[in-house]
Specification:
Number of strands: 12
CATH class of the largest domain: Alpha Beta
Largest sheet: 5 strands, antiparallel
Strand order of the largest sheet: 2-1-5-4-3
Shape: rod-shaped
Distance between the termini: 73 Å
Order of helices and strands: HHHHHEEHHEEEHHEHHEEHEEHHEE
Number of domains: 4
Radius of gyration: 42 Å
Number of helices: 14
Helix content: 40-55%
Structural class: alpha+beta
Length: 436
Amino acid sequence: MTLKQKLLTTAVSLHIALFAIAFVFRSELESFLAIIEIILLISFIIFYRLISKALQPLEYIDTFSNLLKEQEFTARFSELKQPDLDKLINQFNLLLERLHHERLEIGEQKGVFQKLMAESPIGVVLLDYEGRVTDINPATEELLSIKRQKAIGNNIGQLASTQMRYLSKIAVDSHQLIEANQGRQLKVAHYEIRDRGFSRSFYMLYELTGDIVSSQKSAYEKLIRLMSHEVNNTLAITNSLLESCLAFKHQLDNESGADFENALNIVINRSGSLNKFMQGYSNVVKLEKPIKTSFNISKMLEDLKSLFYAECDNRKIGFELICEPEQFIVADANLLEQALVNLIKNGLEAIGENGCLTIVLIQNQTSTCLSIKDTGCGISTDVERQLFTPFFTSKESGQGVGLMLVREILTLHQFSFELVNRNDTQGASFNLTMPR
């Protein structure tokens, strides 16, 4: 029962009781009974009006409360020409007006924020009070290769199978350089804000790949050119002198001459090996801008399968090619073939013997996806973070040039790529996406 109902019930009960008393003493009151009844009726009417007016502010408060619940901030109350009540009405109208303006400002700010989130090249990951992802922007989707729908509502720990796992290791108010898929170098910063009395975290991701790669490339290009120049000049002079020295073998007896010729040939062959060694590095810095044409990549893969047939047969490695016969892409065929040769060699070296190398080519309306899968030992965590670092190699006799050359060629084509462990079996998979 409301306060108004209680007061009206009390007033009605009181007046009924007075009517009853007057009726009991009607004989004594005689002609005054009618007057008393009229007075009691007028009294009840006055009571009712006073109660209604006294409780009218409560009715406005109830209406105001409903407006707040419904967030209807554009409504306004009219004045009633009652000073006390009009003061309350004016306060309500003032508060509603302020709420309306604040809503407009928040809406404008939210619009600007959403626009910034959508257009910013900086990745942003927002968490709620319990550490669940509430929003990520398109830049984060692209940098971490994750869809917004998959991330929202999950804790960072629940996304351990994705690249979001890197974020959980970064302390508050600190930043860290991480290497994500496709050889990307990301600077990730972790911050906290106070929202309605609680702490909320958010992450900001900056891609530094271009700057780092450019700096690395500038440094190693100068070094390689200097080394190539000095080594090639030295080898040219040395080989010339050695070839001249071979002419003197006839001045020695047969046994000494044979030993002399063998020793010189060993040095010449070693010089040739050194020349090939330096040529591997030179190839990286001599890459020209791709000359793109349309060609049948299916035919190229068939040719590469034939090229490596003998090596696979000797190692007892199966070579499976899954693709349609006529699939065309636009790229520099020579450069892309060079990259694919390196990737196939890496796959065969990872397998060693008795395994299987599988190449899968799938084409859709927007892109061509190529996967080179091996059944080797896979990629360890330490190696994974340094895969595309210049001159890094996990092989005892490697130069660290193969993947570096692959990265250069694919980056020149603006193709996206990643080298990851396989989910279906042991081994690694190099996944390449080429826009059509």
